[in-house]
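Most newcomers find our protein records easier to grasp once they have seen one. Each record describes a single protein and holds just a pair of labelled lines. A learned vocabulary of local backbone shapes supplies the integers on the structure line. Nothing more is needed to start thinking about how sequence determines fold. The record below serves as our worked example for the rest of this section.
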Amino acid sequence: MDERMRRQWAATEAQTYGWGGLSAVSDATGMSRNTIRRGVAELEMHKRKP
């Protein structure tokens, strides 16, 4: 899994978890919250493209 895929996987997990998910995934994986936020932004951008 490359870095982009890891970021987006972590973002998906955080979104699935709901409130507090970002911190929970960050704590569990050791990834920074900013990295996971970037993954969330990438997923949102991907959703908006037709």
Remarks:
- Residues 33-48 form the longest helix (16 residues).
- The radius of gyration is 10 Å.
- The chain has a mean pLDDT of 92.
